[in-house]
Design a protein that fits this description.
The protein folds into two domains: 191 residues, Alpha-Beta Complex (Quinone Oxidoreductase, Chain A, domain 1); 131 residues, NAD(P)-binding Rossmann-like Domain (Rossmann fold, 3-Layer(aba) Sandwich). The protein is α/β, with parallel strands linked by helices and 349 residues long. Strand 14, helix 9 and strand 15 form a beta-alpha-beta unit. It has eleven helices and 17 strands. The strands form four sheets. Strands 3, 4, 5, 8, 9, 16 and 17 form a seven-stranded mixed sheet that branches. The structure holds NADP nicotinamide-adenine-dinucleotide phosphate and zinc ion. The site of NADP nicotinamide-adenine-dinucleotide phosphate has 31 residues, from helix 1 and helix 5.
Length: 349
């Protein structure tokens, strides 16, 4: 086993603190990765605080991983030492079901194996995420980081990037479409950049009032503060597509009213349940959908798309000692626009 320095939460109420984990020695099809950077996603917080239920402790969060391959299994030809690679929200799946065969491993019928707060395929070995110095991963669940990109700004693409790219592609957002991104946080700011790079006209809808300048700088052409009087009436029936990235409860019906007939709203944020009125959909033949990260093939496609269009995340790089403070700031929507942990700040064993 490989003794590995990490940060873990021991319960839903504890702060993250230094912790030591054991990584498996790489098997014939595994790579061992030295982690350089790990982004901080709101899903880490939901799970550390057991907001989705069923959390497994000790928990080492982190699923926006960029690092260097330092060891390759005996049967690997795809990767070599020194390769810069990424690992996202899952590290394995069944490899056999219809979803896995289609390259949509995130929808694996047997259940994907999440990078943390889950178990490996044996169903009993806990998985530990990227708030750590190294990770052992099956070669097929690793993607190649295109050359020439600043790595700390690439890490968030591994979740925030693919989670916004995938629905924009899947639901066919195209040049000239009028797209609204709800919530300007980690996912939201990537949604703005990627939708813009796809040629859409993007509006940010925010419950904060102070993000207008940032929204425009990120590529939006308009900004709506939901607190403005009459915001939902003024902008009714304006958009073809809404990408909702909000992490807290809010009224979906009000946002659906902003869609034109035949419009689509895709939820990627995962707050507590909300009441939905059928009338909100029926009256204009609207579609309401959800979307979960993206498969390995599509994650590689997204990275290549971002490299081609010069899209990376706007980040605030922090040492790991600041992680608890970063969580508090994320909860106050005070993130510009993704915290990324510099793993050099965690002493290696
Ligand atoms: P984040 O950085 O905290 O951004 C969330 C944004 O939601 C905030 O910046 C804020 O934007 C808005 N917001 C927060 N509280 C709100 C409230 N009470 N009312 C209205 N808007 C509010 O979080 P994130 O990392 O982008 O993640 C967002 C959500 O997506 C989380 O629920 C996360 O678990 C989920 N997620 C889903 C997937 C997936 O595969 N579907 C993947 C990753 C994350 P404004 O200040 O602009 O309003
Ligand atoms: Zn995430």
């Amino acid at each position: 086993m490989i003794t590995t320095a990490a940060y873990a939460a021991l319960s839903a109420r504890s702060q993250l603190a230094p912790y030591t984990i054991q990584r498996r020695n790489p098997g014939p099809h595994d790579v061992l990765i030295d982690i350089l950077y790990c982004g901080v996603c709101h899903s880490d917080i939901h799970q550390v605080r057991n907001e989705w239920g069923g959390s497994i402790y000790p928990m080492v969060p982190g699923h926006e991983i960029v690092g260097t391959v330092v060891h390759t299994g005996t049967d690997i030809s795809k990767w070599k030492n020194g390769d810069i690679v990424g690992v996202g929200y899952f590290i394995d799946s069944c490899h056999e079901c219809a979803a896995c065969t289609e390259g949509e491993e995130q929808y694996c019928e047997a259940g994907m194996n999440t990078t943390f707060n889950g178990f490996e395929r044996d169903g009993k070995t806990p998985t530990y995420g990227g708030y750590s110095t190294r990770i052992t991963v099956n070669e097929d669940y690793v993607v190649r980081i295109p050359e020439g990109l600043p790595l700390e700004r690439v890490a968030p693409l591994m979740c925030a990037g693919i989670t916004t790219y995938s629905p924009l592609r899947h639901f066919g957002v195209k040049s000239g479409d009028s797209v609204a991104v709800v919530g300007l946080g980690g996912l939201g700011h990537m949604g703005v950049k990627i939708a813009r790079a796809m040629g859409a006209t993007v509006t940010v809808i925010s419950h904060s009032t102070g993000k207008r300048i940032d929204a425009l700088a990120l590529g939006a052409t308009d900004f709506i503060a939901t607190s403005e009087k009459g915001a939902f009436e003024i902008h009714a029936k304006r958009f073809d597509f809404i990408l909702d990235t909000v992490s807290a409860q809010h009224d979906y019906n009000a946002y659906l009213n902003l869609l034109r007939h035949d419009g689509t709203m895709v939820l990627v944020g995962i707050p507590d349940p909300v009441l939905l009125s059928a009338g909100s959909l029926v009256m204009r033949r609207l579609k309401l959908a959800g979307s979960l990260i993206g498969g390995i093939r599509e994650t590689q496609e997204m990275l290549d798309f971002c490299a081609e269009h010069g899209v990376v995340s706007d980040v605030e790089v922090i040492p790991i000692e600041k992680i608890n403070e970063a969580y508090e700031r994320i909860l106050k929507s005070d993130v510009h626009y993704r915290f990324v942990i510099d793993m050099a700040s965690l002493k290696r064993d």
